[in-house]
Design a protein that fits this description.
alpha+beta
């Protein structure tokens, strides 16, 4: 009896059935026109055993998928919790240009750290092709607040990576570049203005002083 006939009569998963036959213990042979199952065998019993094996494998696959999904969900939850904890730690981190905090004691110095940010400002050119000259001052002033904020955020990130909860001795360094180069025709190619800010400091661990100690 052709395997495809059994599959059709009993509405079986054809690929799964043909893969199961070699390990089923039942007699069959592979021919040019498909798989022939020895009809002297109990076909109903064969189908019943396949269905039981198939159901078991489907259940096992579903259970494995459920475990994978649960593990992935747990991992995402841990990542989110870690990210939230990191955000809280950075938000509560104390920063000062001085070298101490009132009411706190420095218990550990972890060294010099820095955070950087930069922005490019395109410059227009007056001339044949039109366009206006860039107002460099206005562009820089509009960028400075964001540059300093981003540099400080990187500073906090560096301190957090060292296990610290504060930064002392913070100051800013500023960099301005006005790059120009010569093009293939011997003319001057004006590249964008570049403004950079570096926030520097020392990462430390601080603890609140015990108010009961005299």
């Amino acid at each position: 009896m052709k395997a495809r006939e059994i599959i059709k009569q009993h509405n079986l998963d054809g690929d799964a059935f043909e893969q199961w036959l070699p390990r089923s213990g039942y007699v069959f042979k592979q021919g040019f026109t498909g798989i022939d199952v020895d009809e002297s065998q109990n076909i109903d019993e064969l189908v019943s055993k396949f269905k039981a094996d198939y159901a078991e494998r489907v259940a096992a696959a579903q259970e494995a998928r459920a475990k994978e999904q649960a593990a992935a969900q747990e991992a995402r939850a841990k990542e989110q919790a870690a990210a939230q904890e990191k955000q809280r730690a950075k938000a509560s981190m104390l920063i000062t240009s001085g070298f101490s905090f009132d009411g706190y004691t420095i218990t550990k110095y972890s060294g010099y750290i820095s955070g950087d940010d930069a922005v490019q400002v395109a410059r227009g050119q007056q001339g044949f092709w039109g366009g206006g000259a860039t107002d460099v001052g206005a562009a820089l002033m509009a960028s400075l607040v964001t540059l300093r904020r981003n540099a400080l955020d990187e500073l906090r990130e560096a301190a957090w990576a060292l296990g610290c909860n504060a930064v002392i001795g913070v100051d800013f360094d500023y960099l301005t570049l006005e790059p120009e180069t010569v093009n293939n025709q011997g003319g001057t190619l004006y590249m964008p203005y570049v403004f950079g800010v570096t926030a520097n400091g020392n990462a430390v661990v601080i603890e609140k002083k015990d108010s009961t100690v005299l």
